[in-house]
Amino acid sequence: MEWIDTHTHLFSDLFKDDVNHVVINSHDKGVKKLLLPNIDESSVKAMEELVSHFPGICYPMMGLHPTSVGKEYRNQLRILYSLLKNRPDHYVAVGEIGTDLYWDKTFKSEMEIAFKEQIRWALEFDKPIVIHSRDTLDWNISIVGEFKKKEPGLRGVFHCFNGNIEQAKAIMDMDFYMGIGGVITFKNAGMDAVLSEIPLEKLVLETDSPYLAPVPYRGQRNSSEYIPLIASKLADFKNLALKEIARITTENARTLFRL
Ligand SMILES: [Zn+2]
């Protein structure tokens, strides 16, 4: 079985002592491709080092994460845009982008401006968008929906999806994917009812490492090695064989990110 982790921050400091080991271990467990969403200017170097070290395994994205949108966001956007423009083929997506009102609402309007500007980058370079939502799923759906009306080719994934059935339907109407991670293994996450309504053809798998480790590693450092654990929970919910989950979610990731 072959898997793709569509969202993993293996360039994080938490992996600095053993990232090579983690990539090789993940690969041994069938997690053959690892997609790396950028955070801001400060994460680019570590991300690119990992990509040069593991060509054909680690693939970078380019974008400004909403929690890194602050006073200097214009400057950040300028720098990250020029990296993308210099090598558009190098990046598999514009990500991660979106909005987040969980920790801080100070830069709410700047987040919206940055999100929209980066959606335009995706359209310019024909890339999928990888969307972060925290307490902002409806808002993000409406922003993407506005673009989608004018630009039907816009594509992407609502990463770390934990919405309700109505939100899932709105996302499917836009022909976007939903990223499913360790949260589905948490008791009381209540995702089984929602997931039963979403066809496997609309789902991709992700860990969001180092965050949100699945059970039985909940609370510990997450790792791309745990993709099969997330998949086996999904197999339970869907009452499907694990190898069906692998086949379809991997195919979805290949299609969306053109791998
Ligand atoms: Zn992320």
Explain the overall architecture:
It is built from 9 helices and 8 strands. Helix content is 42%, strand content 14%. The protein has a 5-stranded parallel sheet with strand order 4-5-6-7-8, with helices on both faces. Helix 6 links the parallel strand 6 and strand 7. It is globular and about 45 Å long. The model has no long low-confidence stretch (mean pLDDT 97). The chain is of the alpha/beta class and 259 residues long. The two termini are 17 Å apart. The protein has a single domain, classed as TIM Barrel (Alpha-Beta Barrel), CATH 3.20.20.140. Zinc ion binds next to loops.
Overall number of structural domains: 1
What is the percentage of strand-forming residues?
5-15%
* Multimeric status of the protein: single chain
Which cofactor or ligand species appear?
zinc ion
Radius of gyration: 17 Å
Number of helices: 9
CATH architecture field: Alpha-Beta Barrel
The overall average pLDDT, rounded, is 97
Question: Strand tally, please?
Answer: 8
**What percentage of residues falls in helices of 4 or more residues?**
40-55%
